[in-house]
Design brief:
By secondary structure, the protein is an alpha/beta fold. The chain is about 30% helix and about 25% strand. The protein folds into two domains: about 20-160 and about 330-360, Medium-chain alcohol dehydrogenases, catalytic domain (Quinone Oxidoreductase, Chain A, domain 1), CATH 3.90.180; about 160-300, Rossmann fold.
Length: about 375
């Protein structure tokens, strides 16, 4: 596995299919971007709104800037933040119009003049923030990662965000130790299922919580030791029974909502509660006397800013994950594949929490 050279980006990259971290944002004239010959298809957000407000259009094909490469997209992962960014509700807002889609896999079509160490035709993946719901995208060279041998494009497009976020959360933020007990909320979703797998690799006893028995059956296949259907079971009493009243050591919570406080109340002494997202649509309000009484911690997990601020650690995380994938320890679940034209349907499946594992768009 190899990485592109790290370059300081000075580009706005907020227009259509140019996904660059918003923290690099500098206003520049859009006419600095050059277009190639022909057209490409892209899902475009022209106004803030629900998935139905997106449009699919033919726009000019892209030409590589000096520090970028053009990737012909073969697959793009669909994630919960995509549903927020099109509504203007995410932590950063691209300038309109833009194409959503944070993680892509494809083939290098063109290189910028200052790019080296990468060749046209290379199979690559990238986490770009937005821009991936398109037939091609301009990507800064330092975001390019070669796809590990044996990994197909659909799996590659569904790998970095879920496994990366969960690994960073469990290993670096919670410092999960072998023998500890991990509770995963929304355990059948992309982040949750990755946390179940990774928790087992790290030696934890994993309790998976989900809304249906079908989802829990998938969690069991992916290594969960204990299962809780929070729609039909008494959540807290089951956890108390499983842990002999001691509570859990770590909670992985990508869901938010009412269940968050119950999960936090089920932590033990010096427990760590990982705030990873709000797929329920509701931001939790946990009374601050609880961490005081339990000597516990509420720990934020912001994946996008982590990869910007800690590039060395990010590279290590990817190396570890791709090594485990090559060893057969990780088995990403892509449960459904949609054509680009059905992006709104895919996003609504995310909103309605109908997804097990990951779903992917293909141009």
């Amino acid at each position: 596995m190899s990485y592109g050279r790290c370059l300081d980006s000075k580009f706005n990259a907020l227009h259509l299919c140019r996904g660059v971290e918003s923290s690099w944002k500098q206003e520049i004239p859009l006419n600095v971007w050059e277009y190639g010959e022909g057209n490409m298809k892209a899902v475009i957000c022209k106004q803030w709104g629900p998935p139905e407000s997106l449009v699919v259009e033919n726009i000019p094909s892209l030409k590589a800037d000096k520090a970028h490469v053009i990737v012909k997209v073969k697959a793009c992962g669909v994630n919960f933040p995509d549903t927020l960014i099109i509504q203007g509700k995410y932590q950063y807002k691209p300038d309109l119009p833009f194409s959503p889609g944070a993680e892509i896999a494809g083939v290098i079509r063109e290189l910028g003049q200052s790019v080296s160490g990468i060749e046209v035709g290379d199979r690559v993946l990238a986490f770009i923030g937005w821009g991936g719901f398109s037939e091609e995208v301009s990507v800064p060279v330092d975001k390019i990662i070669h796809i590990p041998e044996g990994m197909d494009f659909k799996t590659a497009s569904a790998f970095v965000m879920t496994y990366g976020t969960s690994y960073y959360a469990l290993k670096h933020r919670a410092q999960l130790k072998s023998g500890e007990t991990l509770l995963v909320l929304g355990a059948a979703g992309g982040i949750g299922l990755a946390a179940v797998e990774l928790g087992k690799i790290m030696g934890a006893r994993v309790i998976a919580s989900a809304s249906s028995d079908d989802k829990l059956a998938v969690c069991k296949e992916y290594g969960a030791d204990e299962l809780i259907n929070y729609s039909t079971q008494n959540f807290r009493s089951i956890i108390s029974e499983i842990t002999n009243g001691q509570g859990v050591d770590v909670v992985c919570d990508p869901v938010g909502g009412d269940l968050s406080e119950q999960a936090f109340r089920s932590t033990g002494w010096k427990g760590r509660f990982l705030v990873m997202g709000f797929a329920s649509g509701e931001i939790s309000r946990i009374p601050l006397n609880l961490p005081l009484l339990k000597g516990s911690s509420i720990v934020g997990v912001f994946w996008s800013d982590f990869i910007r601020r800690e590039k060395g650690t990010y590279a290590y995380v990817l190396q570890e994950l791709t090594k485990w994938y090559a060893q057969g320890k990780l088995k990403p679940l892509v449960s459904k594949i949609y054509p680009l034209e059905q992006a709104a349907l895919a996003l609504n499946d995310i909103v309605q929490r109908r997804v097990t594992g990951k779903i992917v768009l293909v141009p």
